[in-house]
Design a protein that fits this description.
Layout (H helix, E strand, L loop, with lengths): L28 E3 L4 E3 L5 E7 L4 E5 L2 H4 L5 H4 L8 E5 L2 H10 L3 H8 L5 H11 L10 H26 L8 E6 L8 E6 H5 L5
Antiparallel strand pairs: 1-2, 2-3, 3-4, 4-5, 6-7
Length: 200
């Protein structure tokens, strides 16, 4: 989806959580043509179902796993069944992981701590976005957009104030232009508000 919009994904790596002395997920090879997995013993894990979260489930044959010498390194299932999940968008994640090793992505990722990571920190620490009490994607999206709008207004106010925009002794007045809206909207904010931006 990002590639269709010519957006280059720059994402952090999340190390898979696997018990010690057990095979890692990358030890199971995915066969795109037959839509199945091959385990370290070359047994097939066939497609079983797709759950509501968008994960495709693959299941081994217990008759084969029962006598497998690698069983103790593969599964703790009493039924001798190994299951592996694969998201329907796994190919996109794999492509993003491939790009993670390129020099361009390494350079861009190093800039995250100076840009977007600071924004995320402010969202969580100063704007209560560590969690939400709302339910549903629509309501949570609305809350997030309102918070982002507030943060942008604060940044604009700080920027205009540092420019030394002319103002009277008591009020700091500035105009906010919004693209794609014919009629301009104006916002009058007191000087005390601007002085308190850093503590908000």
């Amino acid at each position: 989806m990002l590639q269709e919009q010519e957006i280059r994904p720059v994402l952090p790596y999340t190390r898979p959580k696997t018990k010690e002395e057990f095979f890692k997920k990358h030890d199971y090879v995915y066969d795109e043509h037959y839509d199945c997995y091959l385990c370290p013993a070359n047994a097939i894990l066939s497609y079983e179902t797709t759950n509501r979260a968008g994960y495709k489930m693959y299941r081994s044959n217990p008759a084969i796993c029962q006598a497998c010498p690698f069983r103790t390194q593969c599964t703790e299932s009493k039924e001798a069944v190994k299951r592996i999940s694969r998201h329907v968008w796994a190919e996109c994640v794999e492509e993003a992981d491939h790009l993670r090793h390129t020099e361009e992505n390494k350079r861009i990722y190093a800039e995250r701590k100076e840009t977007i990571e600071r924004v995320f920190a402010d969202l969580k620490e100063k704007h209560g976005m560590r969690w939400t009490t709302l339910r549903g994607l629509k309501r949570v999206t609305m809350q997030a957009m309102l918070v982002f709008s507030a943060m942008n207004l604060k940044r604009m106010a700080t920027w205009l104030w540092k420019r030394g925009r002319p103002s009277d002794k008591f009020n700091f007045v500035f105009e906010i232009g919004i693209k794609n809206i014919k009629n301009s909207r104006y916002c009058s904010i007191s000087r005390d508000f601007v002085f308190n931006l850093k503590g908000a």
